[in-house]
Amino acid sequence: MNISTPRLELLPLSLRQLESLLENIESFERKTGYVYLGEPLVPPISTIFQNQADLLIKDPNNMIYHTVWMIARKKDRTILGSILAKNHPNSLQQIEIGYGLSPAFSGKGYMTEAVIAFTSYLRSLPDVLEVLAQTLKTNIASHRVLEKSRFYVYKKTKLYFWWKQYNE
After folding, report:
1. Hey, which residues does 112 pair with through a beta bridge?
2. For the chain, is the Cβ count within 10 Å smaller at the N or the C terminus?
3. CATH code of residue 135
4. Can you tell me the distance from the alpha carbon of 69 to that of 14, in angstroms, rounded to the nearest whole number?
5. Do residues 101 and 80 lie in contact, with contact meaning Cβ atoms separated by under 8 Å?
6. What confidence score (pLDDT) does residue 140 get?
7. Which residues, 6 or more positions from 157, have their beta carbon under 8 angstroms from its beta carbon?
8. Could you give the C-alpha distances from 3 to 22, 61, 105, in angstroms and in order?
9. Residue 135 forms beta bridges with which residues?
């Protein structure tokens, strides 16, 4: 089940696809027909992707919450970045998201478009009431993405801002 916007497609990777991406990008590209130009697959990104794969192995019935969703540009099937849910919704029906975009594609509205589409999808699920995000206080670009996606800061720590999306 893909999520579509005017310019983008959000693609949930199967366990096999995620493992293929982590093992060999060229093989992943051949098998999927997409060109991977997302974040470099080195730590911490490769670690995050591997952690999601491990969660998929343990809990395959909740793929939505455990996989990595590729952010692909429709016009040329180029993967620009990724977005994911950081596990199941909690007891308050809140779910945290994380995302990343290759610097080559920043400043074009792609991440905002992806966050709006992904959070809209998550909020359509019966067990999700609120969507949260965490950013470093120094990550101004991510702050702008969240502000444009109708998030507000609800908590601050020494290093981080915690964001919550306004209810519609």
Report:
1. none
2. C
3. 3.40.630.30
4. 9
5. yes
6. 97
7. none
8. 23, 19, 19
9. 161
Boundaries of domain holding 11:
3-165
Predicted pLDDT at 1: 86
DSSP character at residue 107: T
- Closest Cα to residue 2, out of 63, 92, 46? 63
For the chain, the domain total comes to 1
With 0.90 as the threshold, say if the pTM is over it.
Answer: yes
- For β-strands 35-36 and 160-165, DSSP reports them as unpaired
- Where b means 16+ CB within 10 Å and e means fewer, 101-134 reads bbeebeeeebbebbbbbbbebbeeeeebebbbbb
Secondary structure of residue 87 in the 3-state scheme: coil
Q: What is the rounded distance in angstroms from the CA atom of residue 63 to the CA atom of residue 157?
A: 31
Half-sphere exposure of 108 (CA within 13 A, CB side): 12
Structure tokens at 110: 């792609």
Residue 167: pLDDT band with limits 50, 70, 90:
confident
Task: Provide the Cα torsion 111, 114, 118, 120; round to 10°.
Answer: 100
Which is it for strands 151-156 and 69-73: parallel, antiparallel or unpaired?
unpaired
Instruction: Report how far apart, in Å, the C-alpha atoms of 73 and of each of 57, 70, 119, 130, 135 are.
Output: 28, 10, 18, 27, 25
